[in-house]
Amino acid sequence: MSSRLFTIYKWSLFESIKSRRFLIVMVAYGLSIVMGMLAQGLGSFKTTFAQASLLLHAVYSSGMWVTFATVFGALILAVDAISGEREKRTLPLVLSQPITRAEFIMGKSLAIITALCLATITAHVILILAAISIFQLTPPPDILSASLYCAIPGLLFATTVSSLSILFSTLSRKTISALMATLVFVIAIGPILNVCAPLIASAIVGPPPERPVQPGYVVITNTSVNVSIPPIQPPESELVKEWKQWYSRYSAVRDAISAISPFYHAEQCFHIVAFGASSSIEVSSFTEGNSSTEVSIDFATIIDKTAPHLLALIVYTVVPFLLATVSFMKQEEAIA
Fold first, then answer.
1. Would you say residue 27 has pLDDT above 70?
2. What is the mean pLDDT of the chain?
3. The pLDDT of residue 134
4. Which DSSP category does 90 fall into?
5. How far apart are CA 178 and CA 185, in angstroms?
6. What distances in angstroms separate CA 279 from CA 60, 135, 232, 272, 274, one per listed residue?
7. 45 by DSSP, 3-state: which?
8. Are residues 108 and 86 in contact, defined by beta-carbon separation less than 8 angstroms?
């Protein structure tokens, strides 16, 4: 079985990479990188700390655009994995060979997922090199490692959308049906869920209490200097406590609803790495213009915070993949 599975995998991977569709996917990734760079803004930052932050934020900004290119790539490469064979009436011919249904769908699915992952990792490396070149950066090793770490959620998101596309392709007789089903599902668990999550959370938790008014600042004016001194904070009132409790419940429900979407987990990983790493940067003997400045990042905290989101993306990959395999195997009597 393993040799036949590998043969199908190798042939399908070669066919995917040499096709024009793979080139279109790479162009889409290139455009997403350009859009991310334009969103970040062009400029040159000379200090080590500013360089470190800029590279991470550039990776975050472009990384979010790359997720949309990944969805496009999955639709291009994976949506006709099985439905396309049915439309061309080549599926009975393929299955008449000495291979099982499990070998066929697993080999072809793994090949498509690999092709999209290769495109994703290539785009991510190009993104980092482009950011270093455009912004004239000399990133310390820790910053470069944190930027490369962002490729992990990017790869897992690519496997997720590929598995979803293959699942709908397996369940559909025609490619257009698989395409529409995948689009509807992705839009529903992506932008629509992102908009609806706060509304649903508010409906479940209830209306917020009256928000407490924060005390203002006392400004002392002198002939030489203006100083803003925060007033002495009074003991926390019941209104403040009530509002904090409500917001805590609201945030928990909103995040739980958002967690249904793989977009949420990918975005959270990018956000944790980009902004979490920036806030945890420790600069030793910092001097402006000193290229020997040592920058260190608390990777243990970053890995600990991103681990649940990475696990969610793995689950989102495995479940549709298994469902597609089981569904395709059960269709044997109806199609073969």
1. yes
2. 79
3. 75
4. -
5. 11
6. 14, 20, 28, 10, 9
7. coil
8. no
CB 47 within 8 A of CB 141: no
One-letter identity of residue 96: S
Per the CB < 8 A criterion, the answer to whether 162 and 116 are in contact is yes
What are 251-289's pLDDT values in tens digits?
999 999 999 999 999 989 988 887 766 555 554 444 444
Q: What are the tokens at 35?
A: 């859009």
d(CA 265, CA 190): 11
The pLDDT of 113-118, averaged and rounded, is 91
Residue 237's φ and ψ, nearest 5 degrees, are -80, 165
Contact 283, 295 (CB under 8 A): yes
**Can you tell me the distance from the alpha carbon of 241 to that of 177, in angstroms, rounded to the nearest whole number?**
52
What is the DSSP secondary structure assignment for residue 296, as one 8-state letter? E
Write out the DSSP string of 215-284: P--EEEE-SS-EEEEPPPPPPPPHHHHHHHHHHHHHHHHHHHHHTTSHHHHHHHHHHIIIIIHHHT-EEE
48: which 2 tokens? Answer: 């080590």
- Paired tokens of 327: 């569904």
Burial 239-271 (b: 16+ CB within 10 A, else e): eeeebeebeeebeebbeebbbebbbbbbbbbbb
